[in-house]
Design brief:
By secondary structure, this protein is an alpha+beta fold. Among the domains are: 13-117, no CATH class; 239-301, SH3 type barrels (Roll), CATH 2.30.30; 314-394, Alpha-Beta Plaits (2-Layer Sandwich), CATH 3.30.70.100. It is 56% helix and 14% strand. It is built from 10 helices and 10 strands. It has helices at residues 5-24, 27-69, 84-117, 122-175, 189-208, 218-234, 236-251, 291-295, 328-341, 377-394; strands at 74-76, 79-82, 259-262, 265-272, 276-281, 286-290, 299-301, 314-323, 352-358, 362-371. A 5-stranded antiparallel β-sheet has the order 6-5-4-3-7. Strand 5 and strand 6 (286-290) form a beta hairpin. It is elongated, with a radius of gyration of 47 Å. The chain starts with a helix and ends in a 37-residue tail after the last helix.
Length: 431
């Protein structure tokens, strides 16, 4: 037998239950559910086609046309932050993001409606709705709860901004010499403004820090401590140079354009940064000297007196060796004439000569000249040397200094003579 009696009974009961189910089904209700589901699906398809067609035919061509004829880019102080090509790319990216977001939300809504229509899947539909609404409501509630702290932060930022704006106005007036403060030099204004900015923003961050979300958590504190230790260990030299830069500003050792000598570096100051100073030598070499090095070195400024109001200039000097057979008055006269003949040398105050030293072979004269152009030292000294040689040779005076050199070997005492071996006795020979 293929089936036993028990199996046949079960099969008949299943068939009977199947027919009973279809006999009791409300076909009108089922048709209504199917119709609503079909309507949702058709609506989703139509909405998809309408949105895609609208973006392809209207939005994308509009962005391309506006970019081609109206977008000139975004510039800040001559720098092109966004070129027209970048703006076009950003526009298309934004439009596509909006398109995909709308389609995703419509698909999500349609899927939720399909689950709501059928009684057996309504619980799943409710879960889908809560999966979207719960995070949004949580964010909204958190934002509302954080609103008082947000207002405090906004007030702190606004007060700091306008205080620094007021300080900037005052420093601008001092720098432009429209406001005179006794004991406060105009070249201090920019550095003082930067100092106020640093302290103001630092104080603002200290006030804002406790108001940030989750600022009391251990993770937030751990990250803060990590960055603090990293900054303190890795920026010792940087902070030292930064502080040295402020000290040099208030010391007023030099300013832009001054001819200075720092250690072995001689040149013009072409740039001052918070961390270093760049000096251009007469060979057009740019030497970067850290502020800490300058603070610990001697700085010679050749331009301070040259730029002073009394315009006395700065003294440049050089040594000239003159033989003793040349009368010292004549030497002084020729050196002074050569100095006055040199370009960029001031006639008043007049050049002067000091008898610096009397050596065994010749006397050393120190020629001192006044100039208001210390940055032209190489040219001034070059022309001065040429003029000195021309005038001395014109008077028949040689600048060659004779030197006495002894060619006699040093005497050796008997005690210092090396030991000579004794000669063997002569041998007589009898013939």
């Amino acid at each position: 037998m293929l089936f036993n009696s028990l199996e046949i009974i079960y099969l008949l009961q299943m068939i009977q239950s199947f027919f009973d189910y279809f006999r009791n089904v409300d076909w009108a209700y089922m048709s209504r559910l199917a119709g609503l589901s079909l309507l949702v699906i058709v609506g989703q398809i139509v909405f998809y086609n309408i949105v895609v067609h609208f973006f392809k035919k209207k939005v994308f061509p509009f962005i391309a046309d506006r970019s081609r004829h109206h977008f000139n880019g975004i510039k800040f102080r001559g720098y092109a932050i966004l070129t027209p090509a970048r703006l076009l790319t950003i526009g298309f990216f934004t439009a596509k993001t909006v398109l995909y977001t709308i389609l995703a939300l419509s698909f999500y809504t349609s899927l939720t409606l399909l689950f709501v229509i059928h009684p057996g899947t309504r619980n799943f539909a409710y879960k889908l709705v809560h999966a979207i609404l719960d995070p949004l409501l949580s964010i909204l509630h958190g934002f509302i709860a954080y609103t008082p702290n947000l207002l405090r932060i906004a007030i702190i930022v606004a007060v700091t901004h306008y205080l620094l704006k007021f300080v900037k106005f005052i420093m601008s007036e001092i720098e432009n010499k429209r406001l005179i403060v006794k004991g406060f030099y105009p070249d201090w204004a920019h550095a003082t403004l930067n100092l106020f900015r640093f302290l103001g923003y630092a104080f603002m961050l200290v006030l804002i820090f406790p108001l940030l979300p989750d600022s009391e958590t251990s993770a937030f504190k751990g990250v803060s401590v990590f960055f603090g230790v990293l900054l303190s260990l890795g920026s010792t030299t940087v902070i030292a140079n930064l502080i040295a830069g402020f000290v040099l500003t208030y010391m007023r050792s030099f300013k832009l354009g001054d001819r200075v000598k720092v250690g072995e570096v001689l040149g013009d100051v072409v740039e001052k940064t918070p961390f270093a100073v760049r000096i251009q030598t007469s060979k057009k070499e740019i030497v970067t000297v850290p502020n800490g090095t300058i603070l610990s070195s001697n700085v010679v400024n050749f331009s301070t007196n040259a730029d002073a109001e009394e315009r006395n200039g700065v003294i440049l000097y050089m040594d000239v060796t003159v033989c003793y057979d040349v009368p010292w008055r004549k030497a002084i006269e020729l050196l002074t004439a050569a100095a006055l003949k040199t370009e960029f040398v001031m006639e008043t105050p007049a050049p002067f000569v000091n008898a610096k030293n009397l050596d065994n072979d010749a006397s050393i004269m120190e020629l001192n000249i006044y100039t208001q152009y210390p940055e032209l030292q190489p040219k001034i000294f070059s022309d001065l040397n040429k003029n000195i040689r021309d005038l001395f040779e014109g008077e028949g005076i040689s600048l060659t200094v004779p030197r006495l050199v002894s060619l006699q070997p040093p005497a050796v005492s008997v005690a210092q003579q090396p030991h000579q071996p004794a000669l063997p006795p002569a041998v007589s020979r009898q013939v």
